[in-house]
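Readers of this paper often ask what the protein records in our data store actually look like. Such a record has a labelled line for the sequence and another for the backbone structure tokens. The tokens are whole numbers drawn from a learned vocabulary of local backbone shapes. We quote a single record here, exactly as it is kept in our systems:
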Amino acid sequence: MRKLAIALTAAMAMAATPLTAYAAPCKDAKGRFVKCPAAKPAPKKPCRDAKGKFTKCPR
């Protein structure tokens, strides 16, 4: 019975941990909220036509 209670307590503690990690992702060194930096754009892929052949990309 004691092992079951310890296992349930550990499982609940592990389940609650990610919620606090995502609560404030954008804070400065002093702990104040700041605007999050913009996400990096996806790397550009070579342009292809409908048949899958490489073409010149439009600008």
Notes: The chain has a mean pLDDT of 77.
